[in-house]
C-alpha cells in the first residue's frame, strides 16, 4: 500500500500474453532477434527460468503507471533489479518525500527529555594533598 492508499495493480493475463508475444518478435536495439524466442526487453538475453522473466511497469505503479501493454516491459531478473534499484526506488522516495512535506505527513516531533544534570561538586579550596603511601609502615 502506498502513501496514497492505492493497492498495487498487476498486469492482467491478456496483457502479459501480448507482452510475451512482443518480446518473442523483437529484440532491443543492438541485439539480434531470435524469432520465436523470448528475449529480455532490456538487455536481449534469452529468457528462461534461469534468467527469470518479470513483467515490469515501465512507469512505476506507485507513480500512476497503468497496467497496460504499453507500460509493460518483459525483463530478466537482472534488468528488473537494476531498474528497481536505480530508477524506480529513488523516484518513489523522492515522490514520497515531496508528498510528506506538502501534506503534513512528516512524523510528529518528539519532545526532548531533559536530564537534571550532575550536581556541581563542592568548591575545592586547595589541591588535594599527596597520598602518603608509607603511612602505617
Ligand atoms: Zn535483461
Can you put this structure into words, describing what you see?
The protein has 137 residues and is mainly alpha-helical. The protein contains two helices and two strands; from the N terminus they run H-E-E-H. The N and C termini lie far apart (80 Å). The relative contact order is 0.13. The mean pLDDT is 89. It binds zinc ion. Residues 40, 42-43, 45, 75-76, 78-79 line the site of zinc ion (ZN).
Mean pLDDT: 89
Top-tier CATH class of one domain: Mainly Alpha
Q: In terms of per-residue confidence, which ranges show pLDDT below 50 for 5 or more consecutive residues?
A: none
Terminal-residue CA separation: 80 Å
Rg for CA atoms: 31 Å
CATH architecture descriptor of one domain: Orthogonal Bundle
- Please bin the fraction of helical residues: 25-40%
Bound ions, cofactors and other small molecules, one mention each: zinc ion
- Count up the helices: 2
Features:
137 residues, mainly alpha, DNA Binding (I), subunit A, two-stranded antiparallel sheet, 2 helices, 2 strands, binds zinc ion
